[in-house]
């Protein structure tokens, strides 16, 4: 088992292209079942790293493949923009 606070320090890495996706900002939890349904990652920085793009990345729980000591591996297609939310 892993605590939510432990997730904040883990790198999120995409298996399909090796990209580091950023830190976990939030979790989506189904209130009826108490299960995590998605990880929410902070919007990536742009404009020389000063501002965020405004679109968080939502990773459905079924796309989370492995929890390691320092990383969480997910499997997303690089060009699939359906995972982004405003």
TrEMBL record:
<dbReference type="Pfam" id="PF05239">
    <property type="entry name" value="PRC"/>
</dbReference>
<dbReference type="InterPro" id="IPR011033">
    <property type="entry name" value="PRC_barrel-like_sf"/>
</dbReference>
<feature type="domain" description="PRC-barrel">
    <location>
        <begin position="2"/>
        <end position="75"/>
    </location>
</feature>
<dbReference type="InterPro" id="IPR014238">
    <property type="entry name" value="Spore_YlmC/YmxH"/>
</dbReference>
<dbReference type="InterPro" id="IPR027275">
    <property type="entry name" value="PRC-brl_dom"/>
</dbReference>
<protein>
    <submittedName>
        <fullName>Sporulation protein, YlmC/YmxH family</fullName>
    </submittedName>
</protein>
């Amino acid at each position: 088992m892993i605590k939510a606070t432990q997730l904040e320090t883990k790198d999120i890495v995409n298996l399909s292209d090796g990209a580091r996706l950023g830190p976990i900002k939030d979790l989506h939890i189904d209130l009826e079942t108490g299960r995590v349904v998605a990880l929410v990652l902070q919007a990536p920085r742009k404009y020389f790293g000063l501002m965020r793009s405004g679109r968080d990345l939502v990773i459905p729980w079924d796309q989370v493949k492995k929890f390691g000591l320092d990383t969480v591996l997910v499997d997303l297609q690089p060009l699939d923009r359906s995972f982004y939310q405003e």
